[in-house]
Structure formats: structure tokens, C-alpha cells
Amino acid sequence: MNNLAKLTAPVLAAWAKILAALPEARLVLRTHALGEAAARDRFAQRLGAAGLPMERVALEPGLPHAGLMAAYGGIDIALDPFPYTGGLTVCEALWMGVPVLAVAGDSFCGRHAASHLGNIGLEAWVAATPEAYIAQAIARAGDLPALAALRAGLRGRVATSPLTDAPRFGRNLAAALRQAWEGAAP
Q: In which residue ranges of the chain is pLDDT below 70?
């Protein structure tokens, strides 16, 4: 449910390896750009050239927000792209009970997902390398009882985390602004 521009060659290669190891798995990609036939066809060719089994890849158009959120009900694990990770997309997946597997990058745009996952206690869902990401995806997809237990409590984890604690955020922001203001005073 991310921007197609984030789906780099290394991401597609990783997804191809994950799907090769999990013959029952399927990959669902949903974004507004896939609502245009020409764009969808070009992207399908790119995915096929990257080795993804297109008979198990669903290319879906975008939806109004309520429909998009409901579509998470058909997803077991969200595979976050890298090195440009999701921000809002990660938060929405987690809120809808879908755990997100990510790779920690070395830049701001590569650490959004790691930050969000850390804030809800899912640091173990952040891989250090694409190879670890692939291995984790395969292992986590193979442990359905653990996945079901995590999914059942995921919204509660998000609801009690710093991700949704607006008063805490406000206090911390006010303190940081005061500190910056006092440090800048002559």
C-alpha cells in the first residue's frame, strides 16, 4: 500500500525470494497508480522481470480511505519497502492489526518504520539487512499461531504506545521548544 517509487530492484528481489520460499503465499500491492491500465501493465512487466510469480501477485487500485483500511483484513504480514520505508502506511497497517516487517536504513527516510515498530515494542520485526528481512519473512509466515496472537493484540499495543499519546507528544515538544528558546537567549 506504498508508493510504487519505493519498490526498488532490491525490494523486488527480496520479495521474489520470499515468494519462492513460500509457495502458498501471495503478494498484494495496492495503490492509486495501479488503477491505470498502462501503469499496471508496465509495473507487472517489471515485477515479472524481477522474478516474481505473477500468478500470485495481485495488483490492485487505490481505494477511498475506509476501503483501504478494510483491505488490511486480507493481509497477514506487511512487507515494508527499503531503503525508503513507510511512515503513515506502517502506522495504518499496525493499527489494523497487521504486523510490519522492515529493514532499518541509515537515513531518516530509511528509519521511519523502525521507529514506529520500536515504539510499540516490535524491534524484533526490524531486520538489519535485506537477507535477514527475507529470512524473517519466511520464518514469521511459517509460525501462524504466533502471528495470530500478535495480530490479536496489535491495535491495543498501538493504542497504548507513544504513537498515539498526543498529550505526551505535546509535553515533550513544549519542553524541547523551551530548551531551544532558552539556549538561544542572549
A: 185-186
Phi, psi of 58 (to 5 degrees): -105, 125
The answer to whether domain 4-184 has CATH 3.40.50.2000 is yes
The dihedral formed by the CA atoms of 105, 111, 113 and 117, expressed in degrees to the nearest 10: 100
User: Strand runs (DSSP E) across the chain, as ranges?
Assistant: 27-31, 57-61, 78-79, 100-103, 126-127
What is the rounded distance in angstroms from the CA atom of residue 35 to the CA atom of residue 91? 24
What per-residue confidence (pLDDT) applies to 186?
65
Which residues contact residue 9 at a Cβ distance below 8 angstroms, ignoring those fewer than 6 apart? Answer: 50
Local structure of 52: helix, strand or coil:
coil
| Amino acid sitting at position 69 | M
- In contact, 30 and 65? CB cutoff 8 Å: no
